[in-house]
Amino acid sequence: MSAALLRRGLELLEPPGRGKALPGLQRSRSGPRAAGAARRRKRAPEPGRSKTTVKGRVVKSAIEEYHKKKPVNHLRENLQYMLKGRLVEDKAIAEQVLAQNRGRKSKDQPPEKTEKKKPESTVFTEEDFRKFEREYFGIP
């Protein structure tokens, strides 16, 4: 901590009735170090000055900061972008691209599709068979 900060802190802690120290008790600014301190004080403030001071600081509104950082919904723009470039490719070309991007390991291969067997059913009913028997074999 610098001496100036300590002095300010002590001034804040002083009882209200007591003023500054007597002029005789204050340190004098004579000597080789006094000139250097004066030079340091006169130097122009740099753009990267100390942030510890309140002077010149702009108070930011918490509501404005919240609105700045609030997430923006880009769904509508993304949907328009995706829908404007409608190119329908052949299924064969799409399958080729997918096959090239797949790995060679068995775990990367899609499962083989097995065709489901439909239960065999006939077009003819039992009455049709009986009628056929009567006509063909002559059974009454």
TrEMBL record:
<dbReference type="GO" id="GO:0005730">
    <property type="term" value="C:nucleolus"/>
</dbReference>
<protein>
    <recommendedName>
        <fullName>Active regulator of SIRT1</fullName>
    </recommendedName>
</protein>
<feature type="compositionally biased region" description="Low complexity">
    <location>
        <begin position="27"/>
        <end position="37"/>
    </location>
</feature>
<dbReference type="Pfam" id="PF15684">
    <property type="entry name" value="AROS"/>
</dbReference>
<feature type="region of interest" description="Disordered">
    <location>
        <begin position="1"/>
        <end position="56"/>
    </location>
</feature>
<feature type="compositionally biased region" description="Basic and acidic residues">
    <location>
        <begin position="106"/>
        <end position="120"/>
    </location>
</feature>
<dbReference type="InterPro" id="IPR023262">
    <property type="entry name" value="AROS"/>
</dbReference>
<keyword id="KW-0539">Nucleus</keyword>
<comment type="similarity">
    <text>Belongs to the AROS family.</text>
</comment>
<dbReference type="GO" id="GO:0019899">
    <property type="term" value="F:enzyme binding"/>
</dbReference>
<feature type="region of interest" description="Disordered">
    <location>
        <begin position="98"/>
        <end position="125"/>
    </location>
</feature>
